[in-house]
Specification:
The chain contains 7 helices and no strands. By secondary structure, the chain is an all-alpha fold. Bound molecules: protoporphyrin IX containing FE. Keywords: Heme, Iron, Metal-binding, Transport.
Length: 120
Amino acid sequence: MEQTLFDKYGGFATVSRIVSAFYDDVLDSPRLSPYFDGLDMRRLVDHQTKFIASLMGGPASFSNEALVRAHANLGIDSDDFDEAVKILKFTLEDFDLEEGDISRIIGEVVSRRHYIVTQS
Ligand code: HEM
């Protein structure tokens, strides 16, 4: 049986470190940080960890409907989305994931662009 990326890279312990590092950089981004003003970041990191874990074949599940609900009223445009994807890619590189594995994860995220971007 093929090993999942989730198991290959150390499960929730690694994914939650990746997500924390990702949000540190998101909050340093002048384009993205205003969207997160006043939010409970712990809750967000928790949800995002489940989301990334599910993309990596882990035991968590995260529905596309939940993604739509979370972003519906935020007015996120394509440039915001691209910036978030770029930061996620840098973060995955920092954690030394293999290039092919990074491409798979980023591909999964990019395929959900239309659930998140609501502004042209
Ligand atoms: C790379 C693409 C993105 C992915 C995979 C993603 C994923 C997620 C996930 C899984 C959640 C948690 C949903 C929940 O709590 O049920 C979330 C929440 C959120 N996302 Fe994103 N997101 C992305 C891009 C963005 C962008 C570009 C922005 C803003 C510019 C953004 C702003 C937010 C905010 C503000 C919340 C919290 C909403 C709330 O709790 O009310 N996201 N996102």
